[in-house]
Specification:
CATH architecture: 3-Layer(aba) Sandwich
CATH topology: Rossmann fold
Enzyme class: lyase
Mean pLDDT: 91
Largest sheet: 5 strands, parallel
Number of strands: 5
CATH superfamily: Dehydroquinase, class II
Strand order of the largest sheet: 2-1-3-4-5
Number of domains: 1
InterPro entries: DHquinase_II, DHquinase_II_CS, DHquinase_II_sf
Order of helices and strands: EHHEHEHEEH
Structural class: alpha/beta
Radius of gyration: 14 Å
Helix content: 25-40%
Subunit structure: Homododecamer.
Function: Catalyzes a trans-dehydration via an enolate intermediate.
Strand content: 15-25%
CATH class: Alpha Beta
Protein name: 3-dehydroquinate dehydratase
Number of helices: 5
């Protein structure tokens, strides 16, 4: 099974950025443990702060991978382009968010990804990624 995690803007700052919301663990540390725990899965990781790079990665992997775990971060609420890319590909996408976006500012309640995602996992911290991975299994 081949799965990729695609993270959007500012998620490269996990462990430093707003630890009261996002925790104090870096994504790289979490990803290392996830790969170790699910070592029979070909798990890859991509992060970009640039919308077009995220769209390109969705298009690149969206016809050959078994699953995509996507945390588009702030682009979730603003990017019609990322939403359209999710709709255009055949690989199923699970949208994840570390925080409960519905307990935050009202602009975070809108997602351009959700209507085209296989499912949405919100608010379980970094565990959201593992829950998405288990959903693909």
């Amino acid at each position: 099974m081949k799965i990729i995690i695609i993270n959007g803007p500012n998620l490269n700052l996990l462990g430093k950025r707003e630890p009261e919301i996002y925790g104090d663990e870096t994504f790289e540390d979490f990803y290392f443990l996830l790969k170790k725990k699910y070592n029979t899965i070909e798990l890859q990781y991509f992060q970009s702060n640039i919308e077009g790079e995220i769209i390109s990665k969705l298009q690149e992997t969206g016809f050959t991978y078994d699953g995509i775990i996507l945390n588009a971060a702030a682009y979730t609420h603003t990017s019609i382009g990322i939403g359209d890319a999710v709709k255009a590909i055949s690989t199923p996408v699970i949208e994840v968010h570390i925080s409960n976006t519905f307990s935050r500012e009202s602009f975070r309640h809108q997602s351009y990804i959700s209507p085209n995602a296989k499912g949405v996992i919100i608010g379980f911290g970094l565990k959201s990624y593992e829950l998405a991975l288990k959903a693909f299994l």
